[in-house]
Amino acid sequence: MKQGIPVPLVRANQWVMVGGILLAILLQSQLLLTLLFIISLLALLFGPKGNVVFVLTKPLLKNRLAAAEQEAAELQRFNQSIATILLGLAVGILWTTGHWSGWIPAGMVMVAAAFALAGYCIGCTIYFQWKQWRHTQRS
């Protein structure tokens, strides 16, 4: 059985993305968005041990983690990949052109994380469709 990621840590990460991106948009801070991209990239490259949000919130959530439900690590990695790609695209557009359209992919990450906090995982839907497509291609 593959090990999962405790839901409170996943939620903390989602809250950081929603709050951080919203703040970056309101302040028009490319630097803050770049920081969020780096945090996301570290999590993608090094897994849960490299996730800055997990490392910082784990001591605060210690009492809740032992009995917490687990999210599938593979699914979380897929979602993290989408978020990292979109944040990278946003940062790239903003730093190279300064055009407002760079905020669109960042907003997409924020909306997806907000939906996940509300109970609907957009990335999970995409993941399911992708797995189903791969299965039919192999058949």
TrEMBL record:
Residues 5-131 form the DUF4395 domain. Keywords: Membrane, Transmembrane, Transmembrane helix. The chain crosses the membrane at residues 12-29, 35-57, 78-97, 103-128. It comes from Caldalkalibacillus uzonensis. This is DUF4395 domain-containing protein. Pfam families: DUF4395.
